[in-house]
Amino acid sequence: SKAIKLAPLPENIAIILTQKLRRMPREVQEALSIAACFGLVVDKECLKILSESSEFGGLLPHLDYAAQSGIVADHGSNYVFTHDLVQKAAYDLIPEESLDKTH
């Protein structure tokens, strides 16, 4: 997957989105960060395969929680971030030292 190359977020929007994501349970934050690596639209089948790894287990229930919270939309076979800025904020939750491992 390719790295997200978006323009910097206006500071106030970035702060609001980051605060909203950080209020989510840690597991949901991690699932959103992993999903953000796939892009705006995330194939559930890819996530299901990834979830079979003990390292990334349980992604789908956490993304269902995010969908109920309005962070992503559940479109049947895909999750879709509600806005590219939300995806960018979720991606930015990945610690710098974990970027290579997450990708």
SSE topology sketch:
Blueprint: H1 11-22, H2 26-36, E1 41-43, H3 44-51, H4 59-68, E2 72-75, E3 78-81, H5 84-91, H6 99-102
Helix pairs in contact: 1-5, 2-4, 2-5
Can you offer a commentary on this structure?
With 103 residues, the protein is mostly helical. The chain has helices at residues 11-22, 26-36, 44-51, 59-68, 84-91, 99-102, and strands spanning 41-43, 72-75, 78-81. A three-stranded antiparallel beta sheet has the order 1-3-2. A hairpin with a 2-residue loop joins strand 2 (72-75) and strand 3 (78-81). The protein starts with 10 loop residues before the first helix and ends with a helix.
Name the descriptors:
single chain, 103 residues, mainly alpha, three-stranded antiparallel beta sheet, 3 strands, 51% helix
The count of helical stretches stands at 6
pLDDT average, as an integer? Answer: 84
Number of strands: 3
The secondary-structure element order is HHEHHEEHH
Largest sheet: 3 strands, antiparallel
Short structural summary:
This protein is mainly alpha-helical and 103 residues long. The chain is built from 6 helices and 3 strands, in the order ααβααββαα. A 3-stranded antiparallel β-sheet has the order 1-3-2.
